Here is the input.
Amino acid sequence: MRSRPVQRCVMAATQSVPATVLAELGDRLGTEAALITDEVVSMVEETAPAMADRALGLHELLRTVSAESHAALVEALHSGELDLRPPDSAAALSYARRLAQAGLPSDTVAVLFQSLQHVYLRHVAHALAEIVTPERYVGYLPRLLDLSLSHGTAGYRDAISQYQELIDWSAQRRAAGQLTTIRAILNGQVNDVGLASRTLRFPVEGLVVGFVLRADDVEGSSPADVRRLIGELPAVRDVLVVALDDVNVAAWASLGGPPTRDEWSQGLGAQFFHVRAGLGEIGEGLEGFRSTHRQALQAYRVAALSPRSKLLAEYSDVASLAFLAEDPVAAQRWVEWALGNLAGPGDGNARLRSTLRHYLAVGENPSEAAQGLFVHRNTVTYRVNKAVSLLPDGLDGHRIDVALALDYLRWTD
Here is the structure.
């Protein structure tokens, strides 16, 4: 930023430009219309060749935009009305729409207006130097540069708005069409794997694994961020992401081959330690596409019950609990029926439940359970006896119910 003394000097040096100078400057620039248009087009072509693609009609439209902008600048010079806002350019809006339809990035719109500014500034400065003395040149130039900049950017904001509006509309149409196709596949209405792959632009025919997760848990929260997160897992070749609602997204990862269990576990641990998500099992083809999504959805329901802020639930770990997650209120009543006083609150009861769960998981072997819990064998025996004493009817005849209820509480406590 300039210091105030320097700003005062510049303001003092800036002089009102006489109408005769403006008119002569307008005449000179008017004769250079074709040259200026050629320079603008050449600069755009050099910076971003796709913006002047003749096959898409962009080249001629670009020339029209430049010609309209140049005519408005010359008109302002002849009229002497330098403070009026330059008129909107219909060609610039059409050009922005065409860029969006061609799938070119938004920064290409800026390239056009930057090129207009650059060419105008050079031609105005050069023409003014031939018209007035060096002393007058210093005084007139700032005012004329402001004029050149304003005409170089005329319509930029509207063009960007037009571009973004069309991009958003196209994205919404694609997302809606994609979601319709996915629903048709999941409902069994589409059974042609080739058609499904072409429509979704995703290799449905190979190995695939499904995810359901909270988008807000992913840094950035956009579909592209979810795609990047999953894409960094081992063996992933491609990722398809679709919004289920305002919070949750479903995703499918196409795999180049089955990853080893260690590779998969390490990748999930590194990428999903901060994300609440459900993960299906690896499947193949259309049926695999369907089943892995169902599994991921069921696993996600279990993960969603946990009070912990971030949790990944793999279907292989929670398959037996999936039906309980469908109705958490009824599930809680059933757990209390199965465990009785052992389902009560407190760290002591939680410790007893954990010990009994490990004990049942290793075939009721107290020595093996002690190793997994890092406690003495006698401690395991004491806790198991204490836990069993709190059950309504002991373990005999109820082992499956007790084990399932304990596993459910492991996820929901």
Q: What stands out?
A: DSSP finds 19 helices and six strands in the chain. Residues 43 and 232 are 39 Å apart (CA to CA). Confidence is low (pLDDT under 50) at residues 1-14. The beta strands are 207-214, 236-243, 248-255, 277-279, 283-284, 312-314.
